Amino acid sequence: MVEEEPPFLQGHGRQWVELSPVKIVKNPDGSLAQSAMMGNALQKERREMKQAQRESEVNSMPTALNNDWIDPMPEDGGRTLAANMRGVGMAPKEEPEWKKHISGGAKASYGKKETKSILEQRQSLPIYKLKDDL
Fold first, then answer.
1. How far is Cα 134 from Cα 126, in angstroms, rounded to an integer?
2. pLDDT of 4-63, one tens digit each?
3. 123 within some domain
4. Domain assignment present for 103
5. pTM (predicted TM-score)
């Protein structure tokens, strides 16, 4: 490695520049800190709402569902109710609105649309012309 400074850089090298360390300043009243606190509060509120919804679903579930399975001649719909209650308390399958908006929902499409058939696509590749030579 060459240690000499070129003439056009003389006086501008690293040893001539005195850098002061960057001061780290905390600003607890700043906008970033406020938005972080608001985000935490919103997240906590959403979590509590979901938990309350799950608890209400579990509390609304009828008890003694097992009796319908034991009974050889249950009332109409007794077994179907028990079968439907199996998924209660699990995560909902619905996506939130913001996620549907971002992902495009059911009509989402990924990648470039191609109108050519696969054979035409292969033939349009540059290497296809060299296939016989290889």
1. 13
2. 878 887 777 666 667 788 888 888 889 999 999 999 999 999 999 999 998 988 787 766
3. no
4. no
5. 0.37
